[in-house]
Specification:
By secondary structure, the chain is mainly alpha-helical. 60% of the residues lie in helices and 0% in strands. The chain folds into 2 domains: 1-31; 33-63, no CATH class. The chain has 3 helices and no strands. The chain is elongated. The relative contact order is 0.07.
């Protein structure tokens, strides 16, 4: 039981160290955005986030309810 706990703790510590190295070595020290609207590959495919798609449909539809 203790051996499993130590191995698990070691694996988590190694993963945290790799994340720390990534943050420290990157130019701005930040991770890239994981949002769909920030992904160039999604933009190339014409995929938007749900909020943007909903907004586009509301402006195009003649039966759309106006936002307040």
């Amino acid at each position: 039981m203790i051996e499993t706990l130590l191995i698990t703790t070691l694996i988590i510590a190694i993963c945290m160290a790799f994340l720390l190295v990534k943050v420290l070595l990157k130019r701005n020290g930040e991770f890239s955005s994981q949002h769909i609207h920030d992904s160039q590959a999604m933009k190339d495919r014409g995929i938007h986030c749900v909020m943007d798609q909903d907004r586009e449909l509301r402006t195009k539809s003649p039966f759309a309810v106006s936002e307040k």
